[in-house]
Amino acid sequence: MPRTTHRTRTLALGAVLTSVALAAAGCTSGSSPKPGGQNSPGTSADAANVNGGGTPVKGGTLKLLGNSDVDHLDTASAYYSVSYVIERAYARQLFTYPAATDPNKVNAVVPDLATELPTAANGGISADGLTYTIHLRQGPMWNTTPARAVTAQDEVLGMKRLCNPTQNSVGAPSYYEGVIKGFSEYCAGFAKVKQTIPDMKAYITGHDISGVTAVDANTVRFTLVKPASDFLNILAMPFSSPAPVEYLNYMPDDANFRQHTISDGPYQITSYTPSQSIKLDRNPAWTKAADPVRDAYVDHIQVTEGPDEAAVQQQIQAGTADMEWDTSVPTASIPALRATKDPRLGIYTSGISNPFLIFNFQSPNNGGALAKPAVRQALEYAIDKVAIGQIYGGPSLNTPLDQTLPPGSLGYQQMDPYATPGSKGDAAKCKSMLAAAGYPNGLQLTDLVRNAGKHPAVAQSVQTDLKACGVTVTLDPVPQGDYYGKYLGVPAIAKAGKWDISEPGWIPDWFGNNGRSTIEPLFDGRTYGPGATDWGDVNDAQVNALIDQALAASDETTAAGFWHQADQRLMAIAAIVPFESQSTPVFRSDRVHNAIFEPFSQQYDVNEIWLSPNS
Amino acid sequence: MSADMTADSGAGPADTVDAARSTAPAGGGTSAAEPSSGAIEGRSPWQLAWLLLRRDKAAMISLGFIVFISLVAALAPLLAHLIGYGPTDQDRTNGITVDGLPVGPSSAHWFGTDNLGRDILVRVIYGTQVSLLVGVASTLLAVAMGVLVGLAAGYFGSVVDTVLSRAMDVVLSFPFLLFAIALVSIYGSGLGISVFVIAFFTWAAVGRIVRGQTLSIREKEYIEAARSLGAGDLRIMFVDVLPNLLAPVIVYTTLLIPIAIVFEATLSFLGLGVVPPTPTWGNMLSDSQDFYQVAWWFPFFPGLALLLTTLAFNLLGDGVRDALDPRAGRLFQD
């Protein structure tokens, strides 16, 4: 099964999705040896398995093997986490996340194309928090002929291309619209443009986003609508990459575009065969001196697509491939790998809550019982979170989670407002609370479940737990590809009572200061509507107000306080039943050294790996 | 009327009687037709067929197995009670490892457990219910449709035949799985839709056979006689033609049941069949996909049940065909 290859926004929008819930996803390596430090086998969830000893060697071909293709190669639209595995090699942003094993550093943005992080002290951020002035470093070049410097104008163009009127526009417009001044207006105008290359080119060259300007070749200025303490996180999204002017000569991310990508990273795409292979070679225009975050040890990166999860795993174990591309380590084979302390297995603790139980607040079934907090609070006690963790590989990969924010997100403070013995559920308590809430005879609920992967098992586990509490659950299986787009994201279906509960998954688009990518999309009731990701219509005035305050906070510490309060409030009203936070297992071949887990792509940073010589 | 109508004395039972008489003694000393040697007994064609079938050991063993699993299906709740687990009970203490892996066969779980700690023996037993129910129900539905359409096409001929035959061709050329997936995504999965989908894709084959037989039967002189006596179309079709079709229809029905059972398992395997947590063999095989390397018992027992059941129905079907149509070569000589 493919690993959760999608950032969840896409999932939520129901575009092309396959599976989030396989999302054995994870991120930060907890307390961990530094690269170059001691190599520890992946027996503990907190052990980073870097294989960093020895002197880095340049050269060789890093072979990635997996099942499916990228969603896009165009940085404006690529949204799968697997796409970012290679984007990190060919596309740079103003800011990015470092290759680090220190959990305190890995989710904090660092300069990439920019010379430094803008702050109020260095004049990068204005006193009102609305203007960001960012200086680009000298040295980064496009691999054009001849090679050309990456300029502030390229960054402006990159932002302008985001809301092109084709289907290959930015996957997460909400990070830009309503944040950057003039962005919504620019997009509204762009939406009316005919989808031809000359028309789109004319619009882009003839119109500007008022909040994005190139002061000079090396200075770009962003003006915001309101303060956003996570604005640098937004600029670190691959969407925010600069774009070379040559891109105006193509339809965004069409087949022709994909054969002509332009790189400012250490590697360039030299060969791309859809759904078969991607080959990257060194970019001659790149210099290490102008790149503070990438080392680029290997000479070539070869991505091969086709085999399924089990076949990929076998090939990596045999050494004929080096890393997983979009697949994951099969859950069933992890116990054996751990038992033999296989050093090639790395398990990385996570910032991902997946899956979790949502309630349809709009459901007319049971007399609208699910809209009552007391009913939902009773159900909070029903779930055996350990049993659900076992479906995803047991305690080495799963930690029971009792709040909406998983560890790794800003504002996380551990809490367990509905504690049960050993997190295994308390049917008696659920039953008595349900009776007290006015439902002594239980409830009849319909559980909307994806009919593939581990989803049916999760639903059946929930069904068993709720049965013990007197709640009868009927499963309603739907095709995986229709789950978000045709069911969860459709208010008419929710209001008709077609579902009462469901178990979706969610991977935030970034970690750290990421409330805009977790609580806001999942629980801001004002966004409820077709395609929204507040699927159950959680709409709480207090939560909405806290979201506004957190997003407008001038600094991270203030934002953290608001996110924490929102988390508390969401659990107080029992908005969802969280199950667990998950860790990501990653497997590498023997010859892979310096494997540094990169939360953003849920995979090792291909720029940092070096291969055993003579292998 | 064709010129050769006098050359053949009729199809169906009449044929069978003659043929059975002529071949039974040739079968060897233990002829079914001569338990009381010498005395000539009157036997109906069906009695003769049954006598022939009883001599087919493979068919009789298969029949015994089918009776056995039918009993198992009927007594599933009782058996589950005796074993001590319900089909959806999750034994989270002994039925699953800490890491969430199934536990192998033991005294507590004879066939082991699945990935949710459920007893595989009990689930295989319950799976029998669904397999038999869907297998038999969809086959009966398919046969009913096939007989009606085939009879009409063969009997009326001309435009009716053309239209119905082309309809059958269209159905036979439909991609089964694509259609099943489309139907299920529109109507949702479930037992009823499974039965319908399977029947829809198998009736046309029955229809073709029935049409072919009807084409030849309607030319027989006794049909001509019936018609000249003033019998209506419906009476001729159902009273004069249909009984003579029973032999091929029965044979085909027996052979269709295993096909339907496999279809059902396929649908369940793809998540398009019976809704979980109801155990079916296909569901169980599907669940076992991620675990077959570490838990052989998980796919083995439902797979074995599926294999034995389809094999039993197929062997029985062969036996029935041999018994009803002795001119065909026997699968196993005795």
From TrEMBL, chain A:
Keyword Signal listed: yes
Region (Disordered): 28-53
One Gene Ontology molecular-function label: peptide transmembrane transporter activity
Biased composition (Polar residues): 28-43
Matching Pfam families: SBP_bac_5 (PF00496)
Keyword Isomerase part of the UniProt annotation: no
PROSITE patterns linked to this entry: PROKAR_LIPOPROTEIN (PS51257)
One record GO biological process: peptide transport
Residues spanning the signal sequence: 1-23
Keywords: Signal
Domain Solute-binding protein family, chain residue ranges per copy: 109-511
GO-annotated cellular components: ATP-binding cassette (ABC) transporter complex; periplasmic space
Protein name per UniProt: Peptide/nickel transport system substrate-binding protein
Native organism taxonomy: Bacteria, Bacillati, Actinomycetota, Actinomycetes, Kitasatosporales
From TrEMBL, chain B:
Gene3D superfamilies linked to this entry: MetI-like
Coiled-coil portions: none
Entry keywords, A to Z: Cell membrane, Membrane, Transmembrane, Transmembrane helix, Transport
Record's bilayer topology term: Multi-pass membrane protein
Sequence ranges assigned to domain ABC transmembrane type-1 in this UniProt record: 128-317
Claim: Transmembrane is one of the keywords in the record: yes
Location in or out of the cell: Cell membrane
Region entry Disordered, spans: 1-40
Biased composition regions of type Low complexity, renumbered to the chain: 19-39
GO CC term, one of those recorded: plasma membrane
Residue ranges of the TM segments: 58-83, 132-156, 168-187, 193-210, 245-274, 294-317
Pfam families for this protein: BPD_transp_1, OppC_N
Chief place of localization: membrane
GO biological process, alphabetically ordered: transmembrane transport
InterPro entries: BP-dependent_transpt_permease, MetI-like, MetI-like_sf, OppC_N
SUPFAM superfamilies: MetI-like (SSF161098)
Record has DNA-binding as a keyword: no
Protein family per UniProt: Belongs to the binding-protein-dependent transport system permease family.
Entry protein name: Peptide/nickel transport system permease protein
